[in-house]
Amino acid sequence: xxxxxxxxxxxxxxxxxxxxxxxxxxxxxxxxxxxxxxxxxxxxxxxxxxxxxxxxxxxxxxxxxxxxxxxxxxxxxxxxxxxxxxxxxxxxxxxxxxxxxxxxxxxxxxxxxxxxxxxxxxxxxxxxxxxxxxxxxxxxxxxxxxxxxxxxxxxxxxxxxxxxxxxxxxxxxxxxxxxxxxxxxxxxxxxxxxxxxxxxxxxxxxxxxxxxxxxxxxxxxxxxxxxxxxxxxxxxxxxxxxxxxxxxxxxxxxxxxxxxxxxxxxxxxxxxxxxxxxxxxxxxxxxxxxxxxxxxxxxxxxxxxxxxxxxxxxxxxxxxxxxxxxxxxxxxxxxxxxxxxxxxxxxxxxxxxxxxxxxxxxxxxxxxxxxxxxxxxxxxxxxxxxxxxxxxxxxxxxxxxxxxxxxxxxxxxxxxxxxxxxxxxxxx
Length: 428
Fold this sequence. Notes:
Blueprint: H1 3-15, H2 18-25, H3 29-43, E1 48-49, E2 56-57, H4 59-85, E3 91-97, H5 102-105, H6 110-116, E4 120-126, H7 129-137, E5 143-145, H8 199-208, H9 211-215, E6 221-227, H10 229-246, E7 250-256, H11 259-267, E8 273-276, E9 285-293, E10 295-300, H12 328-337, E11 345-347, H13 353-356, E12 362-366, H14 367-372, E13 379-382, E14 391-398, H15 406-418, H16 420-423
């Protein structure tokens, strides 16, 4: 029995799928399956019911999982205790951050933290508040940055700062020319708010003091979309704008999450359409290829960069990488080209990346993201001499969509098929 086997078992239980767990752990599915199977053979019991979709633990599996969590926690504690005896600050810090804070706050302290504590492995995940609370209680993260409110019993909270609300208004809106806006001046039909589960949504509703009106549809057609972070801003944002221009009465909800969770959303009708990077065989879900993404290098340099395209991986300093997990295939490529390197800063949200890159630091991103960063000061886009294999993104939806949302789904899909903006991302 090994720590790796226990970690893989936990990943399958959390993700509900061997494929999704492999993506989460940055290994191939056969490797992960073999490790879990070896653990089952050693213990002489079946730990996971593979006939269920999603995969669920057996009775014996629940017992082993409970102990596995404690074992992994003890293992990490031992490593940290030994490091402390050696006069070092080492180990792993798993930090959760809400989307409304991550891009604007992390860059103020993360670079200094990395310099001061070079042996601490920092893993940053962007989550909505409800997921953060759940992750803290399940010991999936160590700490988090949230907006307000109480997280519940057993969680220690400390106030860091206070913030103010401002109205962000389109130039086409009559309120644009005003210096000050009253709450009662805001037309709720035109108000863009965050998805349910985000604490800032609740704050806005409370501020407007019209929770009933804000939670109602106002006669609109509903459309809910769940998407991985790397596709929203770089690919789908123009599609969302075109949809709202064509059909202003659509009540559009956009949620950012990981592929594993998006499959659950689609299956349970929490969202109508999802965009993921993992293809799963599911009897109730239609999976279609969406786009293929190639990878490019983003290099931060305040002067003239000393690199020329295409850049060889040997020319890059692995100690100055800001690592982003683009899936198991990417991770395997990374291991081949940067053997033995340790990524001490890992994060899963694209919006954080530009602010975390300091002079001389670099990261690898899909070409759709690289294109949005070409005009960012100090960030330079390069081709790679031996780039990672492309990744395919998929569009998923329920086999039997909700009838009341069918028209909105069809309109959105027609825009996807017709939008000239998307044609540049399709590859043979």
